[in-house]
Amino acid sequence: WNRSKNRQVPLSAYLAMPFSLGGTKFTLGIGTVEYADLNHYYQNNNVLAPHIGTERPVPTPLPPNNPDSTVPVEWYQYFRDRSGSIRGYGAAVAGSVTDNISLGMSGMILNGKTDDVEQFLGRGRLIFFYNYFRLDSLYRKIRESGSSEYDGFEITFSGTYRGPHVTVGFSLKPPTAITREYTSEFSYDSTGIPSVSTVSGKDKMKLPWRGTVGLAINPLQNLTIGLEYELRPYSSAAYTSPAGITSNPWRSAGIVHLGVEYRVLDWLSLRSGLRGQSEVFEPEGNPIADEPVTYSVYSAGCGISYANMRLNVTYEYYSMKYQDIWQTNVNLNSEKRHSIMADLIYYLPQLF
């Protein structure tokens, strides 16, 4: 199966103002940005429960060779769909410690909403014997649809050192907790007449320390090469369910970003970039345990300046592919995304 959908990228806005205090230069900024894109879709038309074909952790054993020993397995179609995002609303301040060193701090209030749908559609019940199986008819439809609201707060510390040809920077994010409150309509149907009830609850996700370190080199006056390493130790992130049970369901990754900017003219810059990207899950039957799904993201763009305005346009493309490996088959999963992003900067004339 395949599915495609177009989405509009949410708008972001920033306002920054430089000022001096006691001979030290500062910059104060406020703004709003999309903190997390929560749009997601997944579908599997042939799910078995329990997963008798799993390779890890341990394959399901065959039943003994006698007519009274069987393994009953549910066979169903499953899909989930989530649309929405979490936005950040915050402020930042940065100051020059010396002519070359600047330090800053920012804080964001996190708030968002998503529409959520999850459905199980029974296709039958498989009864496995020692050397054959039987398929029984089974009608069962379970559907849950509703909405979720997210709240949290995040602080970031950052700093840069600027030399004649080299700039070094870092950012550091302390642990952050994001809570979700959800309300949904739960429908269960095994007879043709659904039973409907309302479900609500609250869960929480606590992210660990995270950080990035970057390096920018100017081998020529009009050429800049940037390299950044991002650490995502999400295996330490804790999820607390509505029942109060805490687990660590995600995977860690380290990501490298590489970018080049060439200023062709005073008013025109050309840019290109390559970065790694990582999901927080690993494929089914992953031959390297605990290693998440990874892929590359490619980008190209330009910056155009005119008077007090600057327009930046970027095209981004990625193709994510991974395999779910079972004992008797392989599921091929792929997702492609094309994105066009633009931002417009206007420098206000000095008022005083």
Descriptive account of the structure:
This protein is an all-beta fold and 352 residues long. It has no helices and 19 strands. It has strands at residues 13-21, 24-37, 40-49, 71-96, 101-128, 133-136, 141-162, 166-173, 176-189, 195-207, 210-220, 223-232, 238-240, 246-247, 253-265, 268-278, 294-306, 309-325, 330-346. The protein has a 19-stranded antiparallel β-sheet that branches. A hairpin with a 4-residue loop joins strand 18 (309-325) and strand 19. The radius of gyration is 26 Å and the shape is elongated. The model has no long low-confidence stretch (mean pLDDT 93).
In short:
With 352 residues, this protein is an all-beta fold. The protein is built from no helices and 19 strands. It has a 19-stranded antiparallel sheet that branches.
Q: Decide which structural class fits the backbone.
A: mainly beta
The value of Rg in angstroms is 26 Å
In the predicted model, the low-confidence regions spanning at least 5 consecutive residues are none
What would you call the shape? elongated
Question: Multimeric state of these chains?
Answer: single chain
Overall residue-averaged pLDDT value? 93
- Strand percentage lies at over 45%
Report the major sheet: 19 strands, antiparallel
Based on DSSP secondary structure assignment, what is the total number of beta strands? 19
Helix-residue proportion: under 10%
Number of helices, where a helix is a run of at least 4 consecutive DSSP H or I residues: 0
The helix/strand order is: EEEEEEEEEEEEEEEEEEE
Distance between the ends: 62 Å
